[in-house]
From TrEMBL:
EC top class, as a word: oxidoreductase
UniProt similarity note: Belongs to the glucose-6-phosphate dehydrogenase family.
Protein name according to UniProt: Glucose-6-phosphate 1-dehydrogenase
Catalytic activity of the protein: D-glucose 6-phosphate + NADP(+) = 6-phospho-D-glucono-1,5-lactone + NADPH + H(+)
Keywords: Carbohydrate metabolism, Glucose metabolism, NADP, Oxidoreductase
Domain Glucose-6-phosphate dehydrogenase C-terminal: 198-468
Length: 474
């Protein structure tokens, strides 16, 4: 049953990078597709800077582009008219009281159609202010309608720096909001081919009997970017590639690749299975880690001269359960490499040729299977070829939604399947915290690599040792 009544979306940190580049454009896409009907929805921007509604609108206008709108410029103007701006600090009552007043004003004006009030707070803010902002929302801005409705908050990583700090943050927020009200975004869970993983695995006879240690030799989950930390050096240096990409995005993908079939498709049952995978990961061994830092990274004035922060890492995880015992899961991520790509490579055991199944998350979504065929022609020889499902060709004319667009729609609909649950987050930190502490203490050092290269050669050696065989390019 669709909920009726008015929906207020409040973007805190409205003039920051995340809001401008991701949150508002995603809201705009949803608006263009009719998911945010103007007679129900109002959007509020909140930040410290004292600017007018129009100034905020002008700041975000340039980021609003839609290929799904018949008259984009008209839609941009109409969308911007839904946005109001309120300024205030992140830890004082005044701004939040004002915000509540504005939201309530809009709710009474729209509530001629009887309905509930729904308040979605999107924290496009650094985690250091999450506790105070949550406290302020809790105290001053909760939905007060007696006709029902809800208040939800959306937060983004980094959720802490290690197990201890993440748990502290979780319990501070947990004292103010219940788990069903908290949406922890990992935007990789909003990507088309990540969302496809469970269907692929559990709705295809091809995969069901093969997806285990008897048939799979190794699994590689790779993230590469062909640019460095440009402009984000200060932020990045605090965290490094493991906290930025591996502990969250790649680990989430690993969960979906490795988890058992859930007892039902209810979000909680799916998340239960993901937690079990994380809890089955064995402690990481130093000799199964290669760290790298690209040359030139420290030239960024916001990066300390002696930074020990890795911009590249290859880490092997081992899952201690019946299905995966002995199968290395190779997680690899790096900045300033030779290409931009995110993919999952599943290598099957030799027969004697090597079959490989590749799921390319981006760019150009695709799934392809490398297999051996007879070389066409009179001779009897074998050659490697591909069964290829490239989305662009197969689904011409279908626009694949942006991850943020999908995830924000889920928060409005109240579907938590593609969000990280508190126990999942804890289990993810448990895996990486000992390694991160060793890096932070300088006990493990990154190997320099050339920007634009494949990363340190030692990483390729580690892969080879784990059983990965480089197949012919495709
Ligand atoms: C973010 C990281 O979470 O993901 C960035 O903080 C990274 O460092 C980005 O560039 C990559 O996202 P995508 O969707 O472009 O693969």
């Amino acid at each position: 049953v669709p909920e009726i009544g008015c929906l207020s979306i409040i973007v805190l940190g409205a003039s920051g990078d995340l809001a401008k580049k991701k949150t508002f454009p995603a809201l705009f896409h949803l608006y263009c597709q009719g998911f945010l009907p103007p007679n129900e929805v109002h959007i509020f921007g909140y930040a410290r800077t004292k600017i007018s509604d129009d100034e905020l609108r002008n700041r975000i206008r340039g980021y609003l582009v839609s290929d799904r709108s018949a008259s984009p410029s008209k839609d941009v103007s109409k969308f911007l008219q839904l946005i109001k701006y309120v300024s205030g600090s992140y830890d004082a009552a005044e701004g939040f009281q004002m915000l509540d007043k504005e939201i309530s004003k809009h709710e009474t004006s729209k509530n001629s159609l009887e309905g509930s009030s729904r308040r979605l707070f999107y924290l496009a803010l650094p985690p250091s202010v999450y506790p105070s902002v949550c406290r302020m929302i809790r105290r001053y801005c909760m939905n007060k309608s007696n006709l029902g409705g809800w208040t939800r908050i959306v937060v983004e990583k980094p959720f802490g720096r290690d197990l201890g700090s993440a748990e502290e943050l979780s319990s501070q927020i947990g004292e103010l909001f219940d788990e069903p009200q908290i949406y922890r975004i990992d935007h990789y869970l909003g990507k088309e081919l990540v969302q496809n993983l469970l269907v692929l695995r559990f709705a295809n006879r091809f995969f069901l009997p093969l997806w285990n240690r008897d048939n799979i030799d190794n699994v590689q989950i790779v993230f590469r970017e062909d640019f460095g930390t440009e402009g984000r050096g200060g932020y990045f240096d605090e965290y490094g590639i493991i906290r930025d990409i591996i502990q969250n995005h790649l680990l989430q993908v690993l969960c979906l690749v490795a988890m058992e079939k859930p007892v039902s498709l209810k979000p909680e049952r799916i998340r239960d299975e993901k937690v079990k995978v994380l809890q089955s990961v064995l402690p990481i061994k130093d000799e199964e880690v290669v760290l790298g830092q690209y040359e030139g990274y420290r030239d960024d004035p916001t990066v300390p001269d002696h930074s020990n922060t890795p911009t590249f890492a290859t880490v092997i995880l081992r899952i201690h359960n019946e299905r995966w015992e002995g199968v290395p899961f190779i997680l690899k991520a790096g900045k300033a490499l030779n290409s931009r790509k995110a993919e999952i490579r599943v290598q099957f055991k030799d027969v004697p040729g090597r079959n490989e199944f590749v799921i390319r998350l981006q760019p150009s979504e695709a799934m392809y299977m490398k297999l051996m065929v007879k070389q066409p022609g009179l001779e009897m020889s074998t050659v490697q070829s591909e069964l290829d499902l490239s989305y662009r060709q197969r689904y011409q004319g279908v626009t694949i939604p942006e991850a943020y667009e999908r995830l924000i729609l889920d928060t409005i609909r109240g579907d938590q399947q593609h969000f990280v649950r508190r126990d999942e987050l804890k289990a993810a930190w448990e895996i990486f915290t000992p390694l991160l502490h060793r890096i932070d203490n300088g006990e493990m050092k990154p190997i320099p690599y050339q920007a634009g290269s494949r990363g340190p050669a030692e990483a390729d050696e580690l892969l080879e040792k784990a059983g990965y065989i480089q197949t012919h390019g495709y």
